[in-house]
Amino acid sequence: MNFKALLKSARGEEPCDLLFKNAAFANLCTMEYERGDIAVKDGIIIGIGEGYEAKESVDCEGRLLLPGFIEGHMHVESTFMTPRSLAAAISPLGTTTVMPDPHEIANTCGVEGIRFMRRESDGLPVDFFYGAPSCVPASAQETPFEEIEAEEIKKLLADGTCAHLGEMMNFPGVCLGDDKVWAKLDAARGLVITGHAPRLKGKELAAYLLGGISSDHECSCEEEALEKLRRGMYLMIRQGATARNLSALAPLLVKNPAFATRCLTVSDDINPIFMLRRGHLDGCLRELIECGVEPLAALRTVTLTPAEYFRLDDRGMIAPGKIADIVMTDTLDEKFRVLKVWKRGKLVAEDGRTLEKITPAVLSALPGYSGEARTPTAEELRVKIENPEAMINVIGVIPEQVVTETLQMPPTNIGGFACADAERGLAKMAVVEKNRGTGRFAVGFIHGFGLTRGAVASSVAHDAHNFTCAGMDDLSMSAALRELARIGGGIVVADGEKILAEIKLPVGGLMSLLSVGEGKAKLEELAAARDALGCSNEHAFMQLSFMSLSVIPELKLTDKGYFDISGCGVMPLFVR
Amino acid sequence: MNFKALLKSARGEEPCDLLFKNAAFANLCTMEYERGDIAVKDGIIIGIGEGYEAKESVDCEGRLLLPGFIEGHMHVESTFMTPRSLAAAISPLGTTTVMPDPHEIANTCGVEGIRFMRRESDGLPVDFFYGAPSCVPASAQETPFEEIEAEEIKKLLADGTCAHLGEMMNFPGVCLGDDKVWAKLDAARGLVITGHAPRLKGKELAAYLLGGISSDHECSCEEEALEKLRRGMYLMIRQGATARNLSALAPLLVKNPAFATRCLTVSDDINPIFMLRRGHLDGCLRELIECGVEPLAALRTVTLTPAEYFRLDDRGMIAPGKIADIVMTDTLDEKFRVLKVWKRGKLVAEDGRTLEKITPAVLSALPGYSGEARTPTAEELRVKIENPEAMINVIGVIPEQVVTETLQMPPTNIGGFACADAERGLAKMAVVEKNRGTGRFAVGFIHGFGLTRGAVASSVAHDAHNFTCAGMDDLSMSAALRELARIGGGIVVADGEKILAEIKLPVGGLMSLLSVGEGKAKLEELAAARDALGCSNEHAFMQLSFMSLSVIPELKLTDKGYFDISGCGVMPLFVR
């Protein structure tokens, strides 16, 4: 950026490109509303006040201008959209900058998956600053495409692919001084290191902080959040599609609006249905204000504070020298709407739509991902009972949670095989390794998932994102898995040999080539098909996607079999 | 720093080095007082709370612990002390980090002078982070030892000698796009660039901000400060020995304590007399609180906010993972006293004294500075009147200010020579080039300086720090200048051939080898001698030191002659 070339316009001696006239704007530095004209040239705010000439003027008629919203933590892949589709969806909602952690695609496609995300994020009306994933794989129990170690992280940070360290989820590894974990922390020392430390407190939290980690987005109650704030962490108030902490944490900001300088509001994981219903950061703002948070304090958590936290000193406020990322709204209350959005001084969205059509296509090659996997036949999925007295270990689903419990139950024995049993709430589960094409699979059982017939299968299965399936009969399961392989990844609902619904996720097995509206429609079709299988669990797909995540308690199933996070480690299907 | 080695102590499994028990402490993240034990190992805070074992404990008995104070902007040279003496003086006052701009020594000794300051600052109980001087020389009218251009600045930033860009005083150069100025700004783009922009506002301020400059310490009224805050700048509230803006700006913090997140309190220029009377940042805190600023808001301006502004994420708060720079006080009110100071977990000062004796010696060589100059004889200082009708241009002193006015007066003609004249308030002035040893000198006149006889001479003469002298007769002036050269720089008061008082400043012509107490005594001797010459102007030495600064309006005298900053440029002694 040639700032020197802007001086004549700044001094008012040459016309600027764009002039917002009769504007009110939010000043996050002084926490007040100001009035004044705002002059822009070459995408940079060059002045505020009277007496500017411009090639183009926007009469704001007293409407409010806000700095573009900055998303401090999200996973693009969770939206089922590519960066292009996501940008098209959130740009009209006022988001102009996103700090994504690409650890999902890093699991399925490795380092080249991250570079792919970086490439696909260029030239969009939203700036993406990627964190280098710090935990690929989530644990040794999972099989990602490749492990990402400190050396790769150094390269990603050095060559500009990534700008900070992504969420450090391995808090036991940090606290206990795991060498590989600390090599990653050391690789990012001096940069921003983002955290993920649910329920960590006291001495464990202090140990975690020694790693240089400076934020957390896993707080679910005021007490936890306050301790982390007190110990110097930035608090990321998460309002995701399912992990929703905003109403629990907003009271902190109500009681003490000054906390807005230490709080960000973030999405973590959101999906098209959620976005079209609630919005993005604009929705978070409405909710914060509805909770009683002072509007400018709420606004700071998605503008200046994330800019400060991530050391983006070129944005986060409407001030001379900053990028002209500007959001026009009717007002700033619990019902406000984004009217227009300018990115680097260019009008990019109006009335909920981007001005330029952004197709959901992928523009570059994604190396590493084939989506192919040898999936097991119905016969291979059968579980033979060797000892009729033996109990089976079962994953116990806890409603609306991603944590589970470990259950021991007698199997339902049909012809010498342990089978799913709707009456007992027992489904069979399978995980098929697909990232390395080994076709290795493991079978287990899950209680409380909610299916009564058929099967659901998904290539979205945290964190390694192998093919995961839950079903009531082996035929449905093998059909769902086979279809999953055929379409190169996605979510499939099958009833016997029949495919009831599916969403294709060919981009790394995680992302579709759909727009937000198309994605929503597909997800609704999947929900309807799930309903048709008698499954009342509206979080079924999300819960299934977490049943192989080997770092969230208690019992999980990966392609290597059962894993008990609470200390037992690898566990057999049958209780010995 | 090996943080991993601290984990066992952080987890409470191994004893830490030092434990503050029964402490109250200021938490700048949540803006509250907390109670709890604070555990330290290897100079790092490793935990807060109960249950730590320690090799050594400090029973705080409920006394208050604060983070070490951070000085956001000062010139070490202005204290007449070396970094060692300064550290010895301010460490017991609670200062643990200083961000000095070494542009004074850079003028007299060049780049090697800066490296000398860096070396002399190592191993002290105060951390010094130097800014790379951005304006050496202050203008082309001055003669420094060498010019410091963008290339040298790049090197200083790259090799760790400097960490940010020092005050950008050349605001016309910034606003008008001067190539050399912008090359310096570009050399520091992305780093912190500190500012100096008195009275700049509106479009000029906006143009200045395009340079990437993010702070200012020259605000003297609320209106100016508020505009700069609104435009995104950090406000440095300056409370120097003579430039004292605290009482004018404190109301901003009284009205809106949230401004504490955008304000620093700094010293800029202070001297031993001031320090022993008022303190350092501890004194600023007392004054802020006396002005009605909420104590924690006041404290933030000298702890967390400077740490945030300068991106020192290892300090500024008492929290796990941060450096154990800790100040113990009796309380935090308008009369509070610093009791003890720990630097990196080591007790370094108690009851106003450093525990370890820090001698005022200089430990390394200072290249480039000779202090030698050929000084003019009394005869050479004479000003012959060629045209008896001609008026002379005269620098008009404005009481207590460093700005001047341009006067035109008839000379006092004694035997065909223009002479000083006590009755008319007219003194003669001379500036002798000493940095390059040319001995070039210029003579002018100054009105309102206050002398009635004798002469004062000084090697502290902003910014080039040539030998500057004001006197009532040529004999006193030549004697004062000769003595100045003999002692290698300093401040001298002479009456005829007799030297009444002097302070030796052999270190670059700017710094003594004295402690703060010795320096105060010498300055008091100088003041007494000045009084003996009938000079009632208590700011005489300071004002003299600014009479050759070619960037502060209006008329100044450098070794090249008169310079009128307000547009006329070089001016002759006699009005033509």
How would you describe this protein?
2 copies of one chain form a homodimer. Chain A is α/β, with parallel strands linked by helices and about 575 residues long. In chain A, the strands form 7 sheets. In chain A, strands 1, 2, 3, 4, 5, 15, 16, 17 and 18 form a 9-stranded mixed β-sheet that branches. An 8-stranded mixed β-sheet of chain A has the order 21-20-25-24-27-26-28-29, with helices on both faces. The first copy, chain A, has a 3-stranded parallel β-sheet with strand order 6-7-8. In chain A, helix 11 (about 270-280) packs across helix 17 (about 515-530). The model of chain A has no long low-confidence stretch (mean pLDDT about 95). The interface between A and B is large, with 52 and 52 residues.
Give a topology summary.
Two copies of one chain form a homodimer.
Chain A: H1 7-10, E1 16-27, E2 32-41, E3 44-48, E4 54-59, E5 64-67, E6 69-74, H2 83-90, E7 95-100, H3 103-109, H4 111-120, E8 127-128, E9 130-132, H5 150-158, E10 162-168, H6 171-176, H7 179-188, E11 193-195, H8 202-210, E12 215-216, H9 222-230, E13 234-238, H10 246-255, E14 263-266, H11 272-278, H12 281-290, H13 295-300, H14 304-309, E15 326-329, E16 338-343, E17 346-350, E18 353-354, H15 378-381, E19 383-384, E20 392-397, E21 404-409, E22 412-414, E23 417-419, E24 426-432, E25 441-447, E26 455-458, E27 467-471, H16 474-486, E28 490-495, E29 498-504, H17 516-532, H18 540-546, E30 555-558, E31 561-564, E32 569-571
Parallel strand pairs in A: 1-4, 1-5, 6-7, 7-8, 9-10, 10-11, 12-13, 13-14, 20-25
Antiparallel strand pairs in A: 1-2, 2-3, 5-15, 15-16, 16-17, 17-18, 19-23, 20-21, 22-23, 24-25, 24-27, 26-27, 26-28, 28-29, 30-31, 31-32
Helix pairs in contact in A: 3-4, 5-7, 11-17
